[in-house]
Amino acid sequence: MAPEAEQTAAGAEKFVRYFWDVYNYGYTSGNSAPLNGISGEECVFCTSATREIDQANAQGLRQTGGRITPQVIQAAPGPVGSSVVVISVVNQEASQVLDENASVVATSKALKAINADSRIEWTGKSWRMAAVTISSKGD
Hints:
Elements: H1 9-29, H2 33-37, H3 44-58, E1 62-65, E2 68-75, E3 83-92, E4 95-98, E5 104-108, E6 111-122, E7 127-136
């Protein structure tokens, strides 16, 4: 469930945590609509994720695992205006992509301590993801 929208540092952090929940849901359910609904058009990371989810769904593929779990989420210091940078460190579970026959067609290993920084924008009523930058991948 979406957190109550607040134009505060705490509200920005809650939104980013919610974003990762919606991202995870998109990959496990094959439904990109909720992710698309909270992403700005300029978010390249978001567009890439929704495209990947839609293509996998169209091909009858599904993902198991791969959940992203935030370890640290911190809004950048300073006043909260219409745009906020939120610094995050996340872990990602190992995952498998399965075809219609439940045969494994791809795997990825677990990753820890991924820097996943976000820029979010206040729309007047809610936050929207404007950018996600993955600056390093952990082991």
